[in-house]
Amino acid sequence: MRRNFFYNLYLFDKRLFFLVTIFSSLTIFCNIKGDEITPFFVWAMYSEKEDTANKYEIFKILVNDSVLVDYSSDYTDNNRFFLSRPLRYYNKIKQNGFVDPGSSFLETKLGATYSIIQPVAKKIFNGIENQEHFTGWYKKYLEQTMGMPIHAFKVNALSGHFTGDQQLQIDSSYLVVEWRQQ
Amino acid sequence: MAAAIGNEAANNNTGQRNLLCRLVFAFIFFFLLYYQFSNTLVHQLQSPVLKFPYVDITYWIFHLLKIPELITRNYLISCCFDNLLFVSCLLSFFFPNRRGFIILFFLLYFIYFIIFNTYGTHHTHSKIGILLMPVPFMFRRPITFKYMWEAMRYFALFFYADAFLWKLFRFTFLHADQGILILKRNFAAYLYYNSQTFLGGAYTWLLHNPYLIELIFYTGFIAEGFFLVGFFTRRYDRYLILISILMPVGFLFLSDAFFFEMLVLSFTFIRLRELPASAIGTV
């Protein structure tokens, strides 16, 4: 007991003890609930069982009708994060009928009580104006990343599977977003 | 005489605190340069539009107060913000005893953390180490710093141990081909665009020898579990440092996840010299 960190901290400084205890307790609580509230983090990384369906989706980003952007290796990890994640989320919104999936998730989770927080949720989640401005933003971020002016870009989502030879074979594709300077 | 020894010990501990502070902020400065090189400083984000507060109340509060919007939508403000981030980091390095600079850096980085995650539309965990590591240095007294440093060590242990427990209680370790499926999901684009490169060939070879991938996954899982030992003894801290350095390499190799910023927490496994009783007071 005498060597216990919390016991010694309690003897040393009660206010600090309560702060550390509250932080620890809320972190454990969030982990039990499985919901993260910053800064009480949940470290569930790669614990979710992976989907066994042999189906994978990647992007094909074509700039100025000729330059293919390899977002999987050509840039640093953080740069690649901003090239792919917002694009993926935009695609999710599009596939969700232009409704923010976060809003849909909360609506399903809360049921009837969602109407209470709906006015706040409307301010929080992406509305139609955010989606409309996405194309312009993505063009600017591509320019920032590639260091060149862009007059056109096109993003397709390619859907494929791994063959027995462990090669990714593309089965289908669809247009995610396209922009061209008028 | 005892008081003189106590003062000397306190001075030594202040020196130790300052050295650690400089190490930590040098590490952080390196990563700020990396953000600049990666086009992910706030002024480089080009006023992003899609946000991802998800169901995290903290993000909701930030967006309701329009803090991320205010900083990212005005180029001048975003430039000032980035400059302040760099300057506060440098000042914390050069003046480790000035807690104001450390607190300022912490607040700015917290805002940066929210901006990065919400406009990146994914709540990443890799920046948490840099976010929380300045906390112990916000305390001036060596003994208070020592307690908070130890608290950070427990946080570092918790981060890995928690990842182990999640996999344990979700029975992920029993899920067939979990490691292979993680690799395929995260490297699908890489393998499509780079199948002819050396690394692309190496990953394809690994996929032909899936037991090796599963071996890496299970080694990582067990290594995460090893951090539980740290809650009961400091005896194995030197091994924990080594594992905590190897883990981000594993994350990068198996899942293309960049966790090197979390290496800052590895500093907490460096054992501080014990404080003499005269400096500790009533403990």
Description:
Chain A starts with a helix and ends with a strand. Chain A has six helices and four strands, in the order ααββααααββ. A four-stranded antiparallel β-sheet of chain A has the order 2-1-3-4. Chain A is elongated, with a radius of gyration of 23 Å. Chain A is an alpha+beta fold. In chain A, a hairpin with a 5-residue loop joins β3 and β4. By secondary structure, chain B is mainly alpha-helical. In chain B, 67% of the residues lie in helices and 0% in strands. Chain B is built from twelve helices and no strands. Chain B has helices spanning 2-37, 57-64, 67-72, 75-94, 99-119, 128-132, 142-169, 178-193, 198-208, 210-226, 237-255, 277-280. The longest helix of chain B is centred in the first third of the chain and has 36 residues, at 2-37. The two termini of chain B are 21 Å apart. Mean pLDDT of chain B is 91; it is low at 274-283. At the A-B interface, α1, α2, β1, α3 and α4 of A face α1, α2, α5, α6 and α7 of B.
List the helices and strands and how they pair.
The complex is a heterodimer of chains A (182) and B (283).
Chain A: H1 5-12, H2 14-33, E1 56-63, E2 67-69, H3 77-95, H4 101-110, H5 114-124, H6 128-146, E3 152-162, E4 168-180
Antiparallel strand pairs in A: 1-2, 1-3, 3-4
Helix pairs in contact in A: 1-2, 3-6, 4-5
Chain B: H1 2-37, H2 57-64, H3 67-72, H4 75-94, H5 99-119, H6 128-132, H7 142-169, H8 178-193, H9 198-208, H10 210-226, H11 237-255, H12 277-280
Helix pairs in contact in B: 1-4, 1-7, 4-5, 7-10, 8-10, 10-11
Care to give the gist of this entry?
By secondary structure, chain A is α+β, with helices and mostly antiparallel strands. Chain A contains six helices and four strands. In chain A, helix 1 (5-12) packs antiparallel against helix 2 (14-33) and helix 4 packs antiparallel against helix 5 (114-124).
